[in-house]
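Example 4.3 (complexes with small molecules)
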Amino acid sequence: MDIEQCLRGLKPIVVAACLLSPFWGGAAMAHETLGLEAPKPAIALTPPMGWNSWNKFACNIDEAKIRGVADAMASSGMKDAGYQYVVIDDCWQKDRAADGTIQADPERFPSGIKALADYVHSKGLKFGLYSDIGAKTCGGRPGSRGYEFQDARTWASWGVDYVKVDWCYTGSSEANASYTIMAKALRASGRDIVFSICEWGDNKPEEWAAPLGHLWRTTGDIRDSWDKDEGYSHSFLWILDHNADLWANSGPNHWNDPDMLEVGNGGMTDVEYRSHFSLWAMLAAPLIAGNDLSNMDKATLDILTNKDVIAVDQDRLGQQARRVAQSGDTEVWVRPLAGGDRAVVLFNRGAEAKTISVDWDALQWAPGLKASVRDLWSKAVKKSIKGSYSAEVAPHGVVMVRISPAV
Ligand code: GLA
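Answer. The structure with alpha-D-galactopyranose bound is encoded below.
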């Protein structure tokens, strides 16, 4: 057993045993154990939900915009639906003070980050920031390399609840080792902080990131497109396909992150956004909205706040769905839920409506089992269904149902 596997135990006693095991050649050295003997805080038992500035605003951010988003999250129904983290992505930083402390851009954030975090907290929400494990962020701002402990202490003193740490300007650094330093720094910071590892899936984070972080990106960046890829930014369909086989690696407090939502950003139709949102819920993805919450239409809000779909994403069993059938443009995805229900998505990637079926066999149920089927978008319920369920699915659409054995 290697040290990562050993550390996956995560209980303090298991971690202590790992670190003292012969793997280390005897008693662990102080710098090896610093901070990681503290267990990873259990603050993401279901996938984190919130908002991030990048997909809509990129570097065009300032404190007024972030306040506006926090206001909208609290008043629009998003907070009631479960969204809580307001996360500022790249470009809030400017430089470092003489003592190394990271400084916010004084023109865009004149009141400082602590005041903004306090404002977000005053709305009953949580606050997040972005950094990079390399020398610079992807936007060329100061990165955390060499400043991990100082940055973690600064963030904790500002009231940061969530930090996304990117993978730009890392040269020949080893990913696991680099993110381990930040995990130690965060655990030594004195504050429970969700650690979002943004390493783009380059070095198979699904194999080493679980003891360190609460979520890890599995791919390069998402773009607001159904199927058009461009360099390192990928369409919804590309990202979906690259997450399909990772189902075994995800679970409570350690989630695959297929990247933030594009719902409401304008590059896809509402039907396509419903597919995106439904399938992210099936993947047990962190639901991090990426649109302008202070200026969204009703269709966007209705998608983002569909409580039945969110309940699937947030199901406490935390099992990522599997794609159980694929034929031409049609697919069936199944996610087992706590208590024995199944969430099922019938997915039509094609340009014509199709009838798609799921057999009870794919749900690991006997064909004679009677169940009720609830459509999570139309809310229609069909009772006493046996053996299989079929529905017509619109082009680029889903039918998403929750199937419950009848008792
Ligand atoms: C990378 C990340 C994105 C975003 C940008 C910011 O591309 O993957 O999610 O944070 O950097 O520069």
